[in-house]
Amino acid sequence: MNFYIKYNILVCLIFLTEPVHHVTGQLWSYPNRSEFQQLEKDIEKAQSDIVDLEAKGIERHQNVQNDIRILQLRLDAVSSIGGSSSVPCGLIGLAIKDGAHYLLQKRVNGAGWGSRQNAEAVMALRLADPRRFSVGKSLINYDYIQGVNDMFIELISELNRPDFENDTLWAHGKLAQYMVGLTSACKDTQSFYGFDVASIVRRQFNTFKSFFKSQKFALSWVVLALCNANLTEETTAMDILSANPGFYTFGIDEASMIVMALSCVDNSSYSTAQRVAEDSILNGSKPDGSFGNEYTTGLAIQALTRYSGSRHDVYGIIQKAQDWLARNVIGKFANVAMANQVLPALARRSYVDIKDLKCHKKPNTAPTLSASGQCIHVKITAKDNMINKTPFERSWVANGNKGDSMFVVMQKLEQQEPSFNFTSITFSSGEFIRSIVGIATDSGLRQYWQFLRYPDTVMPTGVSNTYPNNMDHYVFKVTTW
Ligand code: B12
């Protein structure tokens, strides 16, 4: 569609700066001033094209229009200082928002998204924005939490049916998918209102082994269910999944699920099968960037975020596919399954990332409505030449909101980026940073993580009392006093 093509350039520029989980290390570059002027022109043009959209009566154009207004505000803020944006401030961010709107509007109180659809909706919403699971802090999160509730109620009532365990509608991978949904909603799958869901899934796998041998798409859900819940894998399931690499009854869709399942378990015995499946996905890349339809492209992108091979062009392939996907789904989310396969891909996550989602946050750390809503991007570098045997240096870009303290920005980064984590100790003067990415300072050796504004200005305030601006760069460096 005309309108989306015009956004294409804008998004390409924006996503130059977005780091990919598991695929690349650091990618950090700013579009220059003239590129930003181009962005501004694109926005203007896109606005005039809204009229076309309305004339054509595109479904949910109202939402899209509203989102574009928000996008424009954000881009205005970014371009005024010449910096750059990243997810969710671009066409892909817009597509994520549209998909989330679609799901939240489709939910019916008490019934959720309908029979056997609740887990897909819940996990899609959480993977699209992991911060959604911050209880009671925003209206959108409130709707999501109601959806989680609907999923629980549906499942409790199903589990209580006497014939449930052998009902193939559930036993052929659906309960396993629900187990992933439960884990994504921070629920213990071994103790779910008196049911050990994980054990039921294992029994179903054993009862229906011959079905799973011929349907590895469904079997992948069994493996993902156990793995995301941090439970021991079923060796037979892994052996079936990794058998006959290169032969996929259901094509790229199946190969993608197999990659996710094998990479989740992360056992070198299965790395060849994973690599063959990855190559098969990459061979299916089409000139327009897609891998087939929206479902297939969504799953392929998710799988490629787990890429384990040595090709250097995978980052670009993911970007191109995401761009195609965003343009093809905005205003056109068709059902829960599509949202489930597409939303994680747009957010550059996969079903495997569910195991790393944070569940038990300290109080008062959730994003609040009081934040002005303006996106800020803060670069954080950690350096250590003392504790680690080899010198360590790594940078991340955190997405926060204007008004967030540095501490809150770091907590948000922890939720956004699996490779970043930190611990702190609470004092009357605020939070004292104790460790970053597992590198913990020893106060007995007079070590501490010094907090600096890039390049070398020692900060007069700690992380709780520092309020970053957009594009600020802070450095943490292990030092002795
Ligand atoms: C396996 C599979 C099948 C198998 C299911 C056999 C089985 N017992 O497992 C078979 C070969 C029967 C099949 C048939 C079709 N499939 Co099919 N199928 C899949 C696949 C690869 C995996 C589904 C799965 O196992 N999910 C995991 C389990 C746990 O979830 P589930 O909800 O229980 O899955 C069930 C439903 O997906 C259902 N199902 C399968 N295909 C379709 C298609 C439609 C339109 C519907 C409503 C349901 C449905 O069967 C699954 C197993 O019970 C998906 C790929 C994907 N990306 O989702 C495509 C997929 C769902 N199929 C698709 C299509 C197009 C079809 C067909 C319409 C193809 C055709 N033209 O004949 C037919 C359905 C025709 C009909 N009778 O209505 C599309 C649906 C796109 C859409 N919604 O428009 C998908 C997404 C593939 C794709 N990338 O395009 N399919």
Automatic annotation (TrEMBL):
The keyword Secreted applies. Cyanocob(III)alamin binds at residues 253, 293, 341, 481. It is found in: Secreted. The keyword Secreted applies. It comes from the Eukaryota. Keywords: Cobalt, Disulfide bond, Secreted, Signal. GO terms for cellular component: extracellular space. Transmembrane segments: none annotated. One of its GO terms (molecular function) is cobalamin binding. PANTHER family: TRANSCOBALAMIN II, TRANSCOBALAMIN-1/GASTRIC INTRINSIC FACTOR. This is Uncharacterized protein. It comes from Pinctada imbricata.
